Amino acid sequence: MDLPIVYHPDYVAPLPPSHRFPMEKFRLLYEMLVGDRVVTPEQCHTPELPPQDWIESVHDPAYVQAYCQGTLDTKAQRRIGLPWSEAIAHRTCISIGGAILTAKLALEHGLACNTAGGTHHAFPDFGSGFCIFNDLAIASRMIQKLAGIRKVLIVDLDVHQGDGTAFIFQNDPDVFTFSLHCEANFPGRKQTSDLDVPLPVGMEDDEYLQTVAGYLPDLLRQFQPDLVLYDAGVDVHAGDRLGKLSLSDTGIFRRDMQVLSTCLAARYPVACVIGGGYCEDMRGLVYRHSLLHRAAAQVYRQYRL
User: Fold this and answer.
1) Which SUPFAM superfamilies match (predicted)?
2) Which end of the chain is more exposed for a tag (fewer CB within 10 A), N or C?
3) CB 162 within 8 A of CB 188
C-alpha cells in the first residue's frame, strides 16, 4: 500500500482572472505530484460530497444554507474574500469531504495527505480570509463520530493563526488546538488556542524548527491524541506575499519531515492538509505545497506503514 493521497478535480473552480486567490494551485499540485512520480493516480482517493448535516456539526445551519444557496449578504461575502458561484460552493463542500476522507485514511494507514484544505479562518456562523467552512473542525468532529475516536490534536503551522478553529474548540477538552504563527499578521484580532506560539517577523529556518521541536513532542506525550490533523501552510516561506516569515524551501521540507516523523515515531496517525500559500510564482508555490507530499511519501516508506 502506498501513501494515501486525496484529490478531486473539483478542488478547482473558476475565479475572475484578476483574483488574488491562487485557485489553480490545487490542480497543478496534483499534476506535479504525478508528473514527478511522487504519487501515482492509483494511490489517489476521490472524496464525495458530505451530507449537509456533517457541515452543520460545526457551522450554524442558517449560515450553511445561506452560503450554499447563494443568499449570503454582501458584507458577509466580502469578509470571505471569494465571489459566490455554484461551482465555488460545490468546491467548498467537496473539499470538506476531502478533509474527512483524509482523516479516515490516516486512521486506517497511519498517514494520509489531502491536496487542498486548511480553511482555519471559518467560524461557526461566518467565513473569513478565503475560508468558508472550517475543514479542520468538521473533519475533527466527524471523525470522532464516524470512527469512534475521542482525542484530536490540531497542529496548525500556517503562518496565520487558526482563529476559527480556536474559537470552535475553545470549550472542547477532546480537541487540542496548537497554532504556531506570525504574531504581526492576519487576523488582527486573535482568538485563544489551547496553545498559541506567536513568532516574530522574519524568523528563519533553524529558529523555526527549534521552536517546533520545543513544543510538539511534549504535546504528543501530554495529550496522547487518537489522531493528529496537520495544517502544513507554506505561507511561512520568505517569498510569500502574505507571510512575513522567512523560511526556505529546504526549511519547509525539514519542518514537514520533522512533524511527520515525530508523530509517527510515537505511533500517532497524521492527516495532512496543505494550508495557505500565496505567491506570484505559481510553479514555485506549487512546488512548496508538494514538499508535504514528498516528505510524507518518504516517511511513509521509512515507517513501513
Assistant:
1) Arginase/deacetylase
2) N
3) no
Mark whether 293 is an active-site residue: no
Find out whether the peptide bond into 47 is cis, omega within 30 degrees of 0: no
Distance CA 197, CA 199 (A): 6
The pTM assigned to this predicted structure is 0.97
Sequence letter at residue 36: D
Question: What is the separation, in whole angstroms, between the first and last Cα of the chain?
Answer: 8
* Sign of the alpha-carbon torsion through 211, 225, 120, 45: positive
* Cα dihedral across residues 191, 147, 132, 247: positive or negative: positive
pLDDT tens, 156-178? 999 999 999 999 999 999 999 99
User: Is the CB of residue 29 less than 8 Å from the CB of residue 75?
Assistant: no
- Rounding to the nearest 10 degrees, give the CA dihedral for residues 280, 283, 288, 291: 170
